[in-house]
Write a structure and sequence with these properties.
With 315 residues, this protein is α/β, with parallel strands linked by helices. It has 10 helices and 7 strands. The protein is 50% helix and 10% strand. It has a 4-stranded mixed β-sheet. A 3-stranded parallel β-sheet has the order 1-2-3, sandwiched between helices.
């Protein structure tokens, strides 16, 4: 599936490169284009594709919702056992699809492309991307060279339990890892952009870092948020005890009145903050339990079953 935003010129050569590759695979295939509110002629080009070839399918958004929403819509519409995401700007090469599938067939659940030799601007795109990839790997423990590469292959059963928001699409390998998925990385080709303009911006990098905070929280505390707030509560109360203890020492050793010591007020402040954090943790715990129970979502992921019927999936 391919998210599309203002790629009118790239679409015909993309189709001409993509269809022969998929045909030569000897597998059943479909291509889902998700038009993310394009304002150029992309919609008309895509409708022409769909009229000529039934296996080329199109979803038109009412407006631009972003790449994460486009990928989520494509994943939702896909019916195959394997879903491959690909950029529509021809910077990813459709000729890499057979290699990605072959890697997936080795027993992996996710195969992530690695644009080892990127053709983007070094200072404004490549360097910030490398720094972000390093940081994501450090925070999540899932170390990949290129989280931003759209070319990835997934087993669809893994995607059924993942919901995407914000700029979360680049964290799909992390979510797959949390679900017990086996992840591999494969160097892929990367071409310079020939038409249109890049959708990358420094603000997008900042949004990605903000989403990293959410991912870190979900990875460690999604089912036990009280532990997260409990740690901060404990730290606040330790700080409070230290401040009050120092004020008491000054009173006993130097005879200085407690009311004249600002550090005593700081101790009260830390004690109050700790109490508030504890209450936040309890509320978060109740909210998460309500979420899982009301949605019927499990707190575990099953790889396979034997002599048991597969449960109905909630999509």
């Amino acid at each position: 599936m391919l998210p599309v935003f203002d790629e009118e010129e790239s679409l015909p050569p993309l189709r001409d490169a993509l269809v022969p590759v998929l045909t030569e695979l000897g597998r059943t295939w479909e291509v889902i284009f998700v038009n993310d509110g394009s304002v150029d002629g992309s919609a008309a080009v895509l409708d022409g594709f769909a009229a000529e070839e039934p296996r080329l399918k199109v979803i038109h958004f009412r407006r631009n919702f972003g790449q994460t929403a486009a990928l989520a819509a494509g994943f939702e519409a896909a019916v195959g056992d394997v879903v491959i995401a690909l950029d529509a700007d021809l910077q990813n090469d459709p000729a890499d699809i057979p290699a990605v599938l072959a890697k997936l067939d080795e027993g992996y659940d996710v195969v992530a492309g690695w644009r080892k030799h990127r053709k983007d601007a070094l200072l404004s795109v490549t360097l910030p991307s490398r720094m972000g990839n390093w940081l994501i790997g450090r925070v999540t423990g899932v170390r990949l060279h290129d989280y931003g590469c759209t070319l990835k292959a997934f087993r669809s059963e893994l995607l059924a339990d993942i919901r995407l928001y914000g700029e979360m699409h680049r964290y799909l390998p992390v979510f797959a890892h949390l679900a017990g998925g086996r992840i591999a990385e494969l160097p892929v080709r990367h071409h310079a952009r020939r038409w249109g303009r890049s959708k990358y911006s420094v603000w997008k990098t900042f949004r990605v870092l903000l989403d990293l905070l959410t991912v870190h929280f979900l990875a460690g505390y999604a089912t036990k948020p009280l532990y997260f707030f409990g740690r901060m509560t404990f730290a606040s109360w330790i700080a409070s005890a230290g401040c009050v203890g120092w004020a008491a020492y000054r009173k006993l050793a130097d005879g200085e009145f407690v009311k004249d010591q600002p550090i005593f007020l700081l101790g009260i402040f830390f004690a109050t903050v700790g109490l508030q954090l504890l209450v936040f943790g309890l509320l978060a715990e109740l909210m998460m339990r309500t979420y899982y129970e009301s949605q019927g979502r499990p707190i575990y992921f099953v790889r396979s079953r034997r002599n048991l019927p597969a449960p109905e999936r909630q999509r």
